Target: Rod shape-determining protein MreB
Amino acid sequence: MGGGTTDIAVLSSGDIVLSKSIKVAGNYLNDECQKFVRSQYGLDIGSKTAETIKVSIGSLTKYPDERRMKVYGRDVVSGLPREVEITPEEIREVLKVPVSRIIDLTVQVLEDTPAELAGDIFRNGITICGGGALIKGIDKYVADTLQLPTKIGEQPLLAVINGTKKFEAEIFEQIKEANRHDDMMNRSR
Model:
């Protein structure tokens, strides 16, 4: 779950068996927070403020020590600066709508997955990576909704980079192996 898109994939033996993408991700969630504050409170806020709201009090499940957040912006009627207080519960409801679209696509991917992988998915579950993995309670929300074990990936913000490194290493190993094979063929001539 990145900034621009959420990619849902089923992996098996190091390969992608099936994948789908949706343009509902971090930036979209920020936009939804901005729209909510404007419609609910008549206050225009910037994208950085919206992201701060999402990161600071955004969640998909209730969490201990929930606190309101003061938000500053421009009143849409007067044009003057103004402050409002937003609750985690309000933002939770804002985030659940787009996240439900991601879950719907996840269900589609699971329905299209070959049946022989169902046991693996049931045992190994779902791993959430990217910035979206940092939304409080997303793992519990997905697990409760899909009734599958769900966890946050190790170093979720670095998942793409770390995966690319592993893929690069595999490619270099394949190239080395091909070169060794060519050398052996040339020596046997």
Summary: Residues 158-189 form one domain. The radius of gyration is 22 Å.
